[in-house]
Amino acid sequence: MAKKPRIQATVGPFVFAYPHLTSPDSEGQYADNKYKVDGICDPASPAAKSAEAVIKDTLKQFGLSAKGTQLPLKKETAKNDKGKREPTGKLMFRTNSQYAPTICDAAGTPIPEKALKKLKIGAGSEGLLQGFFTDYTRTEKIRNADGEVEEVETVGLKFTLTGVQLIKLVKGGGQGANFSAYDGGGFTYGSDEDDDDDLNIDADDSTDEEDTDDNGGLDI
Fold it and tell me: Is the pLDDT of residue 6 over 80?
């Protein structure tokens, strides 16, 4: 069986949400024992535009149709005071990996593993995300309009995280990466003395909703 192709990419900078970068997500209802982080950005930001461009190019290289393909870039949602999820107006770039990503500072210098244990990268930190896209096909069971359960085939893109470049560190509770110095400057290890076509961008809790045409732009 032929090995699936991988398309390398660096995207961002994003604001980090739910980061599990120095240890896997191993506790709680949704724990899957993977390293992960969601990158949050405004739809009009350079991060969003660059991610959209990379995704469009990746879809083309994989020979996938933009419409109907599940993407790692989604509309962020959050629960309101009634417990119902609704869009926040921001986008979310979802990543994960079975292996620990290489973490670099803003100068592109990998942070030693011993120091990472004390770093505690928290939500609100900012940085670039590096990794690779792969495509997937899976069969899911859904309930149709008649209330009957049927199987449908889902096609999508996945982004596997291999590296993170920290630009801003907010402290909170695999493979190599190759970053050059970030133009805008930012966090550098050692400077912190405290040791303590129409893309289908759906909501982060959506799997089957149809998306409308946006005249060649992203369906956000």
Answer: yes
